[in-house]
Automatic annotation (TrEMBL):
SUPFAM superfamilies in alphabetical order: Acyl-CoA N-acyltransferases (Nat) (SSF55729)
Domain N-acetyltransferase, first and last residues per copy: 9-170
A GO molecular function held by the record: acyltransferase activity, transferring groups other than amino-acyl groups
Matches recorded under InterPro entries: Acyl_CoA_acyltransferase (IPR016181), GNAT_dom (IPR000182)
UniProt-listed Pfam families: Acetyltransf_3
Record-given protein name: Acetyltransferase
Length: 173
């Protein structure tokens, strides 16, 4: 795996040592809305996931990378999902774990690195993402990187008893 280095952060492959970090994120109910998670994940399941994290994106259709600072502190994760080799596209998701670390440019730099990787190493024609209508920070982040809103999915996600609309954004290289 190529290490993707930026000015303040780098993206790296998952390691067995990331078990507690991933377990904390996957079991944080405040972010379940963006990941469509419905139930907690056990350490056992995450350990199994990490044991298979070395598999190729062409096989598992997903690539999850840890966003780290240069003090080797894991700050978040950025994912490619629904990787479609035939049509040269993939979905993108990004999450900075601590709310105090959000809107400091970490997600911006991580997304920039991932977009470049998708162009140079995966030769992807397009990327897309799904963002809740009320997630202004993510909408700003992705549109800054050339993603355009191409649709609004009405009443798409049920969150705390209320339906929320979700935008579909797309970036074509």
């Amino acid at each position: 795996m190529v290490t993707l280095k930026g000015k303040d952060i780098y993206l790296r492959a998952l390691e067995p040592e990331d078990l507690e970090f991933i377990h904390t994120i996957e079991n944080d109910e405040s972010v379940w809305e963006i990941s469509s998670t419905q139930t907690p994940y056990s350490r056992f399941l995450i350990k199994q996931y990490l044991e298979n994290a070395h598999k190729d994106i062409f096989e598992v259709k997903q690539l999850r990378l840890v966003i780290s600072n240069y003090s080797n502190i894991a700050l978040g994760m950025i994912d490619l999902f629904d990787f479609d080799f035939k049509n040269s596209r993939a979905g993108v998701g990004v999450l900075i774990k601590e709310t105090t670390e959000r809107q400091k440019g970490i997600g911006n730099e991580a997304l920039e690195l991932l977009i470049q990787y998708c162009k140079t190493h995966l030769n992807l024609h397009q990327l897309y993402c799904n963002i809740s209508e009320d997630n202004e920070a993510s909408l700003k982040l992705f549109t800054k990187h050339g993603f355009q809103i191409i649709g609004l999915k009405k009443d798409w996600n049920l969150v705390n008893g209320s339906y929320k609309n979700e935008y579909l954004l797309q970036r074509i290289n």
